[in-house]
Amino acid sequence: MTISFNINGQPTSLDVDGDMPLLWVVRDMLDLKGTKFGCGKAACGACTLHVDGKAIRSCSYAVKYAEGKNITTIEGLSNGDQLHPVQQAWMEEIVPQCGYCQPGFMMATAALLSEIPNPTDEDIDNNIVNVCRCATYYRMRKAIHRAADIQSQNAKNQPS
Amino acid sequence: MKKTYRAYLASSLLLGILVFGFSTTTGEYLSEPKLPEKSKSTAAELTPEQAFDLMMEVLTHKRCVNCHPSDDYPRQGEDSHIHNFGVQRGPDNHGVAALQCQTCHQSENNNHAGVPGAPEWSLAPRKMAWQGLTRVEIARSMLNPDNNGGRTLEETVHHLTEHELVLWAWEPGVDANGTPREKPPVPKAEYIKAVKAWAAGGAPIPEE
Amino acid sequence: MSTPKPKKKFSRRKFIVRSTVGVGVAIGATYFTRPLWRRSIAGFVNSAELPYNGSTDEPRLWFEVTADNEVILNSPKVEMGQGTFTGLAQIAADELEVDIQQIKVIHAPTASGNIDGTSTGGSTSISSLWQPLRELAATMREMLKIEAAKQLGTDAAALTVKDGMVTHNGQTLTYGEIVKNVTEWEIPETPPLKDVSTYKFVGKPVPRVDLKDKVIGAPMFGMDASLPDMLYGAVVRSERIGATFVGADTSAAEKIPGVVKVVKEPDFVGVVATSQMAAEQAKQAIKAEWATERNWQSEDIEAMIKVGQGDPVTIQKTGRAKRILDNEEDVVTAEFASPIGAHAQMEPNGAVAHVEDDKATIIMSTQVVNLTRKEVADRLGLAPEDVNIIPTYLGGGFGRRLHTPNAVQAAVLSKAVGKPVKCFFNRREEFQNDTFRPPTHHVLRGVLDKQGKIKAIEHNLSSGDVMFGSPMFPGIAEPVLGADAGAWRGGMIQYGAIPNFRTVSWRVKLPFATSWWRSLGLLANTFAIESFMDELALKAGKDPVQFRLEHIQEDEAGHRLREVIKAAAEKAGWKDEVVNGRAMGFAASTDARTPCAQVAEVSIENGEIKVHKVTCAIDPGIAVNPDQVRAQCEGSIIMGQSAAMYERMFVKDGQLLPTIYGPYRMALMRDAPKEIDVVILENADAPGAVGEPPLGPIGAAIANAVFRLTGERLRSLPLAIA
User: Which residues, at least 6 apart from C67, have a Cβ–Cβ distance to it below 8 Å?
Assistant: First the structure.
């Protein structure tokens, strides 16, 4: 079937089996490799991207549901060369080790901050449940708080 | 007595054919749950009390109760363990800000991922908590407009027999290991008839 | 005049007899002193510094200067998160006289000729390349100066070098400009190295060189590799322990849309398709037949891993520990155990293979390029030089990828279809075909003297193999070492002032693959020993930190251990008491000469152990990048906590389970301590191990804290309140 949606702000139309997980569509058909395969069972979160701004685990999301939606991957989180506050904070705190799980975490965090701009530690515990084997959680927590700061600074600096 | 026996035989045969046909077409469902022994006869001859029994066998099954918890945590699996990863109810039963039910669960089962799905996948509100209640307590809760979202009996019957999320229990998909989930012990058609028979008979709830 | 003595006639018979006797005595002596030289070897191995096994005298294998004045560092070590690329860049930048921004580190394909002969692992990348890489970089710098001197018509000694530029009398040449005009390089003698204290980058918290790529989701991992016309493969793998492949019915698989070919080999069956989804579906449709001799259960494995079973080798012995412990009264005896552990790294194993008639290219995440090249070449009947392994950034290593034979299967599939094939494990396969951290069992005995100091201590440890059976080491390792150096890593008593101590390693060969899991035996052995030290301290009525300090010997290793113990205790504000429902637990270990001590602050909440804070002191010798040393400590602590508190594989009906995150519980954000303080000491003159040592103390530190809170000594991992 033909499925049409926006990917990182660009319209696209694909002829694809509607039951194909969005993860494979994004990685293999659209050649966007930032979204990762970790388990294929919605258990690890490495495949997290945004559908209409909401965090979705793309390995358990059939592409047919993407019809007419706005999909954002890690590649689309930044605005050209301008990194997203989450990415800026991730750089400042030097979070990644192997780096494989990090896009999923950043997408989950961006979704969190869009709903809860100033998350408490408990909010972070409840919302961020992806798996990181290198266990960079300690720096991630600091980066999430930092990202919230950067985001609120940006909001203050916006011309009203 | 004979008539009852013949009817029972007929319904068992019908069930057997359905089972066989179903299992050969899907290839997925390895075994159909047998009708428990206390089920007696076809719906056409159900007393409201018998209908209540059949209905409650379904509504107390894990496929339903897993998402009717009395606390903030869905259950999952055949052993009804607390859902992995600490997912929780959230302010409106759909999870929390960046971890909604829809983050993983869509409107259909995803058998690649072993993630179940149905439209409006979410927890039943706290007022519809069934976990830890007896079947009589559950039934009373179901009929109480304060608990059931202000529904009339007719609306409750409609919900119980037509809502996609409820009927999901008979097509629950496979888990992460590819193992089919156990279905309720009463076939869907029998259950639907039982609910209607129960309501038609005045929705009696036994004293227990 | 005396009669000349007659010349002795050479007696062949006497020669043969005497030689035979001599050889016999030598063999006998070797055999009977075998335990003695095995202990010496074990002692040596325990603190040895493994040298780098590859070319270290040809700078052009390592550095390429580009026209843009960048320096490409062709690294034979792979980057799997441990920060090696950044450390190597810092080391090279300082001796090469370039800014760190000018260095681009890439993974060396085997075709480049810069091949690591063993592996990336064992926390040895920086320590083994510290000297060679500085020398290579210094030599490269001199080579550039010699060339610049020629081009500027002067002497090399008259040149000033800085930030990749050479200056003389107002004239400047960048390295990029110099290399354009080189006809033949002159390679000088290795110049003297700079003093470490003058380094601009080494010793500084330089941001990771791969940071930006990892934050923008660059396609840098093996799983992200892609070649034109690439297809997708899947291989049917065993789900049961000890299963051998008999055959397969592939008729259903062949009909799945998108399937290009079903490939049947004597030892496996696979499928190639036009999409990942189709390959998976086709694989599910293959009915494979496996022969299994036995239906293994967890109890079977637990019964095998018991001190007293299998082959014992005494790897450490001072004084008469056994005799004392066998005869004294008031001996404390304790048992400990740890479960099978999965690597569970986030990127599954896989490869993109492209096999053509006379050559093969494999792009993949691996820790063993050299071994993999050989295995692929052997299977394809090619010379190793005709196989190019292109390593990528790894989505986690942890020892999982110290053997990557899946490259062979990807290559076979590619050859069968004549196109590139991407073939990787799904998560279930990744779990069930892991080379696990082996389960262990420990029995410790100890007795105190009248002053409450340890008079004798003995550690018996039983474990599945780590090193034995790994294709990285030739079969000679077993008979020579006797005991598996990976299994007993961290198992020796590090408190050298105890007058009598003994460590015995019991080797058990399990029916499934066990091998290298980050820090090897250190995690389980330290849990056992450091829990036991706490028990003895309690019996002596002494503070656990003081108790440990009392038993440290006076030498360099002892000094370094003493300093980290003191530093950790001081930074944590160590006190051996429960305050507001929280208690501290202490533990320390020495791994590959790097001592590490930790204090865990723990409470019990709703029947669950909660780790609030960990204070860690570590002495890596020289911290090439203090920020990354800190990061390795943070990560190791939480990974160690995860293994100590949550992780456990079990065996049911021949299957290793579970096979998915969630059921295989691991530490998540909510479980990680909210505070981690790391103190770095530098009490040696070269960088040592960092990536694994901090995994040692955390299990015992948590368990010791739990004891303070509940009075209950937890003796098995994963730790759980009953």
Answer: C176, C179, C180
Helices (H), C305-417: 321-327, 369-380, 406-417
Cis peptide before C718 (omega within 30 of 0): yes
Supply φ then ψ for residue C491, to 5 degrees.
Answer: -90, -10
Domain final position from C215, C232, C261:
C215
CA–CA distance, C35 with C278 (Å, rounded to integer): 57
Residue C87: domain span: 12-215
Residue C392: closest CA among C209, C221, C208: C221
Count how many domains chain C has. Answer: 3
Q: Answer yes or no: are the C-beta atoms of C683 and C565 closer than 8 Å.
A: no
A2-7 and A10-15: which strand pairing? antiparallel
Q: Is A35 on the interface with C (CB under 8 A)?
A: yes
Contacts of A124 in chain C (CB under 8 A): 669
CA neighbor of C435 nearest in space, from C525, C354, C345, C564: C345
Residues 197-226 of C with CB under 8 A from A: 207-208, 210-221, 223-224, 226
ipTM, 2 dp: 0.98
The residue to which tokens 């694809």 are assigned: A16
Give the pair of three-digit tokens for residue A35.
Answer: 């979204």
DSSP state of C8: P
DSSP class per residue in C654-709: TEEE--SBTTB----GGGS-SEEEEEE---SSS----SSGGGTTHHHHHHHHHHHH
Its domain, for residue A53, covers 2-76
Look up residue C66 and give its amino acid. Answer: T
The answer on A134 and A111 residing in a single domain is yes
Distance, in Å, from the CA atom of C596 to the CA atom of B129, rounded to the nearest integer, reads 50
Give the global pTM: 0.93
Tens of pLDDT, residue by residue over B47-87, are 999 999 999 999 999 999 999 999 999 999 999 999 999 99
